[in-house]
Specification:
The complex is a heterodimer of chains A (about 300) and B (about 250). By secondary structure, chain A is α/β, with parallel strands linked by helices. Chain A has ten helices and 13 strands. Chain A folds into two domains: about 210 residues, 3-Layer(aba) Sandwich (Rossmann fold), CATH 3.40.50; about 80 residues, Alpha-Beta Plaits, CATH 3.30.70.100. In chain A, the strands form three sheets. In chain A, strands 5-6-7-3-8-9 form a six-stranded mixed β-sheet, sandwiched between helices. Chain A has a four-stranded antiparallel β-sheet with strand order 11-12-10-13, with helices on one face. Chain A has a three-stranded antiparallel β-sheet with strand order 2-1-4, covered by helices on one side. In chain A, α2 crosses α3, α2 runs parallel beside α4 and α8 packs across α9. Chain A is elongated. The two termini of chain A are about 30 Å apart. With about 250 residues, chain B is an all-alpha fold. In chain B, α3 runs antiparallel to α5, α5 packs antiparallel against α7 and α8 runs antiparallel to α10. Chain B is globular. Classes of the chains: A alpha/beta (about 300), B mainly alpha (about 250). Chains A and B meet through β5 and α2 of A and α1 and α6 of B.
Chain lengths: ~300, ~250
């Protein structure tokens, strides 16, 4: 029996064959996946269905088909589950006339938790200096942090973040990523959606990729890449004589294409381990000095590009 | 209870925020201004009769509906428009509590504005005719009519982004027009809730205001029951919609 990499054991959030359509438009189609403690990335281009899937998980949208359960409950039927679940939505869902402190306090009041956690939440997102200013005057990044603070004040077990780093500057981004990673390491379930691939790559231990409303891939970046055996690996080889190496490699079975650019050789292979054994041997035999042997496409960016290309 | 109180407090700020407060505040001056001009002429009828002729209908048929339309439709409509509805819905609180808190806040805010309008009109009457006889009936009429209107407009604001337009058609076509066509139609008029309370508390106005009441029996008790009934139904409908409708921002 094989287990789908989209499904984890000990899941806190389960999506089963969920679909959502708005009239004729299918936003999410037959997605089955689950999330457990730790930080999971939900990846996809704009319009892929990430927000719709997250909204279904939260209970803000009812699945047209299939089901969703969070901490064992259907959030559409049992509002008590929201004691342990929080969402940081993508849109500017803030009350501009409230101060950041007022906004976070309001979240605490509505969730029935003590206001004693308000200061800590504000400190966590590094917003203390602006806490008493109306949110209307905040930059996009500051609003994002206010929303994160409002979610953190309830100390949720499941935290769903829809493009939480939008509009944040690099320092804020690094700080928030660090915060999310810490929460994930502490056993909270964090689902972070993003179309900025580098962000997800920095944050998530596990990635669920959605393309055109469908589950495109799941697992670690490397695992996803390896699962796509039909797509050749791209390897960069730097050496003092790339043309000689190219001439020797081009005849081998595992190499599908070779291109030389300066001192760099770009090789596409269907068998990475074989190439990994062959290149040092060829270099040694020919007396060529290798300075780099690196996969070019194990970044999430390239995985994602493959996924999109495969769908279209 | 803390969640309810917090929601009421924030919603009150939300629904009268920005320019709304100024526009509705100016509108609230209208009955007093009308009363002032209506009572300049010293010839009969007296100021009290003139109050019942023009300022009171201005208050109950124009000011109260418009104030409640703007504020009531914004109670949930603003949350949906601004994308903050999810902030409320993802809380461990009953949907009926959300609807009740929203209605309470909108009713308080609308009553403050419409009640001020009623107070100012009665104040002008008191200055002109040295009587405060209309103050209490006017305020009761405003509070009850506001409750009915706000409740209906809150639900309307939740289901459509064109609530103000639809509400204006309702106010001017139904409330100020068609509902006067036959006595039985007064039963389904929200403005008559206030009017029945007013006439019930001031029986001497029955002859002057009897026609708009149609088949309705004057009385503050009946008006109170009707206003509470409408509010309760609208809270239940609002809660049902909050539970069933997809929460997407516009």
């Amino acid at each position: 029996m094989t287990t789908s990499p989209a499904v984890v054991t000990g899941a806190t959030v389960e999506v089963r064959e969920a679909s959502k359509w708005f009239g004729q438009k299918v936003a999410v189609s037959d997605v089955t996946c689950s999330f457990g403690p730790g930080l999971s990335g939900l990846l996809g281009p704009n319009g892929a269905g990430k927000t719709t899937l997250l909204r279904m998980i939260c209970g803000l949208l009812s699945p047209s088909d299939g089901s969703v359960s969070v901490l064992g409950s259907d959030p559409r039927r049992d509002h008590r589950v929201y004691r342990r679940v929080a969402l940081v939505p993508e849109e500017d869902a803030v009350y501009g006339f409230l101060t950041a402190r007022g906004f976070v306090s309001y979240a605490a009041d509505l969730s029935g938790v003590s206001r004693s956690g308000v200061e800590r939440a504000i400190q966590t997102v590094d917003l203390a200096a602006a806490a008493d200013r109306p949110i209307a005057g905040f930059s996009k990044g500051m609003r994002q942090r206010a929303k994160v603070a409002a979610a953190l004040v309830t100390d949720p077990d499941v935290l769903i973040l829809d493009e939480p780093l939008n509009g944040t500057d690099p320092v804020q981004r690094a700080h928030l990523i660090d915060t999310f990673r810490r929460l994930g390491a502490a056993g909270k379930t964090l689902i972070v959606s993003s179309h900025v691939l580098a962000e997800v790559e920095r944050m998530a231990d596990r990635v669920i990729a959605i393309v055109d409303g469908r589950l495109a891939a799941a697992g670690s970046v490397l695992a996803i890449r390896q699962a796509m055996a039909d797509i050749p690996y791209r390897i960069r080889i730097d050496s003092d004589d790339p043309r000689t190496i190219a001439a020797n490699l081009v005849a081998t079975e595992c190499v599908t294409s070779v291109a030389v650019a300066g001192n760099t050789l770009h090789v596409e292979t269907s068998d990475l381990p074989d190439l990994g054994r062959r290149v040092p041997q060829v270099a040694k035999d020919l007396g060529v000095r290798l300075t780099a042997f690196e996969p070019e496409d194990e970044s999430l960016e390239s995985v994602f590009r493959y996924l999109v290309r495969r769908r279209t | 209870m803390r969640a309810f109180a917090s929601m009421v407090r924030v919603t009150m700020r939300q629904v009268v925020g920005g320019r709304r407060w100024i526009v509705l505040g100016l509108l609230a001056l209208l009955p007093a201004v009308v009363m002032w001009f209506a009572s300049i002429d010293p010839s009969p009828p007296g100021a009290f009769e003139r109050y019942n002729d023009v300022p009171l209908p201005t208050l109950l048929l124009l000011v109260v509906p418009i104030v409640t339309l703007v504020i009531g439709s914004g109670a949930l409509g603003d949350e949906r428009r601004d994308g903050t509805l999810s902030f409320l819905l993802l809380r461990p609180i009953r949907r009926s509590t959300i609807a009740a808190a929203k209605l309470t806040a909108a009713w308080l805010a609308a009553s403050l504005i419409a009640g001020s309008a009623g107070f100012l009109a009665s104040f002008v009457l008191a200055v002109r005719a040295d009587t405060w006889i209309t103050l209490a009936p006017t305020l009761v009429a405003v509070l009850l009519a506001t409750a009915g209107y706000t409740a209906v407009f809150m639900v309307l604001g939740h289901v459509t982004s064109r609530a103000v337009l639809i509400g204006l058609v309702y106010v001017f076509v139904w409330e100020s027009g068609i509902s006067f066509a036959a006595p039985s139609l007064a039963n389904v008029s929200l403005s008559r809730i206030g009017l029945t309370a007013y006439v019930g508390m001031l029986p001497e106005t029955a002859s002057a205001l009897g026609e708009p009441l149609g088949a309705l029996a004057p009385g503050a008790g009946g008006a109170l029951a009707k206003a509470l009934g409408i509010a309760l139904v609208c809270i239940l409908v609002g809660a049902f919609l909050l539970k069933r409708m997809d929460a997407t921002s516009e």
